[in-house]
Every structure is written in structure tokens, then in C-alpha cells.
Amino acid sequence: MRASMLATLATVLLIVGPTVAQDTVAQAKDKSGSSGANADSAGPSKTLAVSGKVSNDGKTLLTDIDSEWAVSNPEALKGQEGRLVTVKCYVDTENNRIHVLSVKGAVPHPTSSIRYGDSALRR
């Protein structure tokens, strides 16, 4: 009886302990963010890879999920107008803008060819 109560208490402490610690860290981050320096004003810290089609003027990117993003540095997309591209960028969701870091042309779908001498076609 005593061993089962001890095991139950240990299990509860193992579950509740990390939860309380995470909450404390989250509160500390909230307090430091509101004490004058805004964490968002320095810019986002993570990059995101987005695939889509560059508009004809090169100032917007239409993604494959039909959302349109304004490009804050359209000179990065120069020469890619009207093409499918994958860009690494910072995303500003409040202003619906992206800041392009790098651009890669989208890889076209691979083409396949049939060889009539292939063993898969023999009968």
C-alpha cells in the first residue's frame, strides 16, 4: 500500500514539475519582452521556405496555397518574374510581407520515358 502511494506521488511530481517550470519560463519571457524592448522589433529569428509564383512585376509572391505576399525587397526576385520559385525568407504576418533571403528556381517535374525493350513491358 505504501509503495503504491509513493509511486503515485512520484508520478504526479514528474508530470507537474516540468509543466510548472515551462510556465515560469514563459512568464519570464513575457515580462522581459514588455519591459521596453519589443522582441518583434528586432525582426524574426527563423527563416521559412515558401514556394510560389513570382508576379509579373516581381513585387508579390503567390504561394501554392493561394495566399499572396508582398515582397519587401523585390530586387532579390529580379529575373524570376512569372516563374515558380522557392524562396527562403522572413515572414511578417502583420503586414503580409516577406523579406527574401535566397531564391531557387522550382525544379520541374521529372519526365519519364518508355523503353520498349524494358522487362516491365514484355509479355
Provide an overview of this structure.
- It is a single chain.
- With 123 residues, the protein is an alpha+beta fold.
- It has 1 helix and 5 strands, in the order H-E-E-E-E-E.
- The protein has one helix at 2-33; strands spanning 48-54, 60-63, 68-71, 84-92, 97-105.
- The protein has a 5-stranded mixed barrel.
- Strand 4 and strand 5 form a beta hairpin.
- The longest helix is centred in the first third of the chain and has 32 residues, at 2-33.
- It is flat.
- Mean pLDDT is 76; it is low at 34-42.
Give a brief description.
The chain has 1 helix and 5 strands. It has one helix at residues 2-33, and strands at 48-54, 60-63, 68-71, 84-92, 97-105.
List keywords for this structure.
five-stranded mixed β-barrel; 1 helix; alpha+beta
Order of helices and strands: HEEEEE
Q: Give the CA-CA distance, first to last residue.
A: 73 Å
Outline the low-pLDDT stretches: 34-42
Q: Please report the total strand number as a whole number.
A: 5
Derived from helix and strand composition plus strand pairing, the structural class reads: alpha+beta
User: Which strand order spans the largest sheet, edge to edge or round the barrel?
Assistant: 1-2-3-5-4
Strand content: 25-35%
User: What's the helix count?
Assistant: 1
How is the biggest beta sheet arranged?
A: 5 strands, mixed, barrel
Mean pLDDT: 76
Shape: flat
Rg from alpha-carbon coordinates: 26 Å
Helical content class: 25-40%
